Amino acid sequence: MISAEVAIQAQFYDLDPMNVVWHGNYVRYLEQARCALLDRIGYNYPDMQASGFIWPIVDMNLKYVRPVRFGQVIIVQATLVEYENRMKIDYRIRDQATGELLTKARTVQLAVSAETGELSFDSPPALIEKVRRLL
């Protein structure tokens, strides 16, 4: 499938009182990798709107394997694993220096008509065409 990755360095403002990255900040890291993936596909948020759909996240799962610490550089990889009826993206966060797996995650997004608010049971042709061109 199609993947993209971003490198992120954990900053002081990302930390919790235990001096590790606060769990809620991982969602921002996933978003950065998801946007890189959507850019690669050519279907990022402005393209979604232009196709007449919004894509809310309806499910998100994270498995914290090891903590990310201040100054640590991580690679966040996003991989599109489903696209025809929903957008399912798997993520892997690894330490840049060692390649050690730190976090696994998944998000699921559904296509919703921007005009009517109705759920679409099929992904819009704009997404399907763009993904198939890259496969």
Q: Shape, please?
A: elongated
Total discrete domains: 1
The CATH architecture name reads Roll
The CATH homologous superfamily name equals Hotdog Thioesterase
Number of DSSP strand runs: 7
Q: Terminal Cα separation, in Å?
A: 7 Å
Q: Which percent band covers the strand fraction?
A: 25-35%
Total number of helical segments? Answer: 3
> What is the structural class?
alpha+beta
Which class in CATH terms? Alpha Beta
Rg from C-alpha positions?
Answer: 16 Å
Average pLDDT over all residues: 97
Order of H and E elements: EHHEEEEEEH
Spans where pLDDT lies below 50 across 5 or more residues = none
Largest sheet: 5 strands, antiparallel
Give an overview in words:
By secondary structure, the protein is of the alpha+beta class. The protein has a single domain, classed as Thiol Ester Dehydrase, Chain A. Helices cover 24% and strands 35% of the residues. The chain is built from three helices and seven strands. It has a five-stranded antiparallel β-sheet. Strands 2-7 form a two-stranded antiparallel sheet. It is elongated. The mean pLDDT is 97.
